[in-house]
Amino acid sequence: MSNNSLIEVVAGVLYNQQGEFLLSSRPIGKPYAGYWEFAGGKVETGESRLAALQREFAEELGIEITAATPWLTKIHHYEHAHVHLHFYRITANQWHGQLTAREQQSWCWQQPGNLTVAPILPANAPILAALAIPTSMSGNLNTGFHSATPQQPALQILPYQPGIATTTVVYAPASQLQQLTKQHPTANIWAICHNHEQWLQAQTAAAIIWPVSSNEDIQLLLNLLQQHPSGVPVMALLEKSSQPTAQPDWITLGVHGIIQEQ
Ligand SMILES: Nc1nc2c([nH]c(=O)n2[C@H]2C[C@H](O)[C@@H](COP(=O)(O)OP(=O)(O)OP(=O)(O)O)O2)c(=O)[nH]1
Fold first, then answer.
1. How far is the CA of 134 from the centre of ligand 1 (A)?
2. Is the CB of 81 under 6 A from ligand 1?
3. What ipTM goes with this model?
4. Quick check: CB of 9 below 6 Å from ligand 1?
5. How confident is the prediction along the chain (262 residues), in pLDDT tens digits per residue?
6. Of the candidates 231, 227, 228, the residue with the CA atom closest to the CA atom of residue 206
7. Is 11 helix (H, G, I), strand (E, B) or coil?
8. Using an 8 Å Cβ cutoff, are 83 and 76 in contact?
């Protein structure tokens, strides 16, 4: 199937001041009516993605979005349409107005990692899992990483080793991902990447870890985020030795979160 037959869709993960995000139910009359989704919809011809997001949030929820950060992208084939989904994050200070259900839909605030509504749109399950990944972590590649602030969902990830419990979240070099996934199909594996080839391999991982120790690492990551937006969340691992290097504004460039090396 050519890319031309893909329908471009934008969807926004809208946050409130408490760090909760918004889900809405799809109105009656649409495919998957009653399923929960992020507000959004199809990009119209000649419209930018941000403009589409602003229009959809105004039409569906009566609020104004002033900015949004590109986050994950995903292609999904439904029976009714083949969609290219572009997910954005919208922080509490990037929108204003009174939330109003303008399409007879329901909406509710949800905590990352603790969903209380069902069913959700089939394409959205990995997206909701990604939301439960903290945006701030610390640790090091030898011993593992953990959430850095108490407000974040708690998470610990450990280096992969044979025999480790499959309920543990682990990381391994991207080159080993395929083999490890075959051995442990249900495991939650993050992939460490340093280059373009590994970035593509890692698109089946639960998340990408991108170690940053030089300006070249930064440049390559920024190019990849631009040219091959990721379907899985990307964590920039800021190595101690890289601290004097000027850091870009990672989150607005599409990185999910930061891991500070300790
Ligand atoms: N809005 C939204 N759509 C999603 C999400 N996840 C997902 O797979 N989709 C799919 C469902 C639909 O096939 C497509 C969005 O199309 P839509 O029918 O909601 O778009 P729209 O509001 O522009 O609809 P319409 O004007 O054509 O009635 O993307 C999501 O989180 N939010």
1. 27
2. yes
3. 0.96
4. yes
5. 444 589 999 999 999 999 999 999 999 999 999 999 999 999 999 999 999 999 999 999 999 999 999 999 999 999 999 999 999 999 999 999 999 999 989 999 999 989 999 999 999 999 999 999 999 999 999 999 999 887 767 899 999 999 888 889 999 999 999 999 999 888 899 999 999 999 999 999 999 999 999 899 999 999 999 999 999 999 999 988 766 567 889 988 999 999 999 9
6. 231
7. strand
8. yes
Given 3.30.70.1050, 1.10.1740.10, 3.40.50.10860, 3.90.79.10, which CATH number is that of 3-124? 3.90.79.10
Q: Find the 26 Cα to ligand 1 centroid distance in Å.
A: 8
For a mutational test of ligand 1's pocket, the pick from 22, 25, 85, 87, i.e. the residue with the most ligand atoms closer than 8 A to its C-beta, is: 85
Token pair listed for 202 = 């890692």
> Which residue CA neighbors atom 7 of ligand 1 most closely?
123
Q: Before 153, cis peptide (omega within 30)?
A: no
Reported pTM: 0.94
**What is the residue whose two structure tokens read 């905590």?**
111
Q: What are phi and psi of 94, to 5 degrees?
A: -105, 15
Hey, which residues does 10 pair with through a beta bridge? 41, 86
Q: Write down the domain spans for the chain.
A: 3-124, 136-261
**Can you read off the two tokens belonging to residue 45?**
């011809």
41 C-beta closer than 6 A to ligand 1: yes
- CATH code 3.30.870 for 136-261: no
Domain 3-124 and domain 136-261, same fold? Reply is no
CA 16 to centroid of ligand 1, rounded, Å: 22
